[in-house]
Write a structure and sequence with these properties.
The chain is α+β, with helices and mostly antiparallel strands. The chain has one domain. The protein contains 4 helices and 4 strands; from the N terminus they run ββαββααα. Helix 2 packs across helix 4. It is globular. The two termini are about 15 Å apart.
Length: about 100
């Protein structure tokens, strides 16, 4: 779910942050300052011929989610690999719409 300034990512398995249980990530919009601090959200894979595809890296996804959700990386790293990958692509889609 998105609105103009926020992306909500529901989690299948809640994350722990101290005593708090996090059931969804509230991701704020990406700013130019975020891009400057974190670098590009995605890389571009050049395939054979004109085949070009974006690639979202787990390390980058963790950095972005940590910053945009105001959570420590250790909390984001509790996510399962599949869920982190899916969140990365949701973040990518959110980024391209902002």
């Amino acid at each position: 779910m998105t609105d103009e300034n926020k992306l909500i990512i529901p989690l299948k398995k809640p994350l722990k942050h101290g005593e708090r249980e996090i059931k969804q990530l509230e991701v704020r919009a990406i700013t130019a300052e975020d891009l400057e601090a974190l670098g590009p959200l995605y890389a571009v894979n050049m395939g054979a011929g004109e085949d070009v595809s974006p690639v979202v890296q787990p390390k980058t996804t963790i950095k972005y989610l940590s910053r945009l959700c105001a959570l420590p990386p250790s909390v984001i790293k509790q996510m399962g690999a599949f869920e982190l990958d899916q969140a990365g692509w949701q973040l990518f889609n959110f980024f391209t719409q902002c």
